[in-house]
Amino acid sequence: MNTNQGNLQQALMRADPRLSRFNPLERILHFDDFDTGQHGWQGYFPDYDGWSDYPERYQPVDAVDQAIEKARRDPRMRIDRKLPFGPRAVPMLSSLTSWDVGTAGSLSGTYALKIPTLPQAGSKVFAQKRLGSPWRGKFRVETWFCFKGEPADFRLGETDIRALYLTFDVMDLHHIREQGQEPSRWWPALRYHNAEDGKLVRRWQANVGSEGVKDGAWEYLEDGGQDLGFNRAATKYQWNYLRFTFDLARHEYVDFHCHGKEFNVHGRQHDPHPPLEGWRASTDKCPGLIGTGFGIETATDKRCFLYLDAVVVSATES
Amino acid sequence: MKNVHTAPVEVLSARSDGAFFTEPHEAGWADEALAMVYVREAAGPLPSMVLRAQISADGARWFDHPAAPLQIGKTGGYGLPLTHFGNWLRLAGEVSGGPANGSPTFVIDIYWILKG
After folding, report:
1. Which of A33, A35, A94, A298 is the best substitution to test chain B (most B C-beta atoms within 10 A)?
2. Predicted complex ipTM
């Protein structure tokens, strides 16, 4: 894109009240305004099988009948590892309505996407969308968000929220083999560690592990400390802006901005330790995947909620 | 064109005798809500489940919607259509007549199908 085109595009976006609060890259892949629908942000359901005929299947992925049996009968299973059988907390369109003020509405309308946890310590719930960028340039996600504990007990609930998540499962396009490169998989992923054991932590982390896209292990960013806007009552919603960019060809973080602070992540890579192996390292069946997940985890037996006002996903061609 | 959304609120859920509630769901954008219930398995001498729709102004204080409850006794599909429910929705279930050893009386899937 030449400079004139860039300036014109920027001027047009700044004049559009819907887009003026975002900074998308040159191509907008999707603009999800939750006043017009849920835009395909769905709950996360882990891989399950039924592929007994699939010779290379990753063994820890159970056949669905095994998974049902385990989820029902194995009390030692980590709650966030169980296939979510039983009661489910799923993303929904919320009007942010409570006993005291009634409907607060979203930042720019009536509805936001709400991601709720179950009322069970450790419950971690995601809203997911999977796309493939047709280009191998930069990829950017932006949103305005707020987070709250359930206000039914009239308590502030700030320390009930263990963490917020923005995770990506990224796999290369397969035609790079024709250029002599081997496709690989990596997980640019950020976690806002909000609280632990009843105390505020409030530091951003990045995924450095191979436990899972959403499971770390996590490393604190050196400059990761940040007091996000939470506000002083359980039903006062304060919105925060977030922008995260990574490079699909270089497998590197480009930038991360949240709530007025630019974090030093440029050039960061996800080099999973221990390395991903076998099926988990493979890009088979998912070439070009960019699986985005927004999530929240509760630290106590109380529902917690992550609200997104809108999501803009954009990319560059190179 | 209308929006439609299917929300899975119970999947392969094993329910023994006793009371339960589905997770609260906000559906203020929808003109109609249809609870679809699939009973996969039923066990015990006289398996019975009564499912009531409940409504709330704030997601915390719940009471029954005027719609007649679903009476469920065997495997199959059941539908509970609702209008004029406001914003917050959940289902209240009362299960009885299951196996004496406390193993599940029913294995069910429940979906909200919202349209508006």
Report:
1. A94
2. 0.97
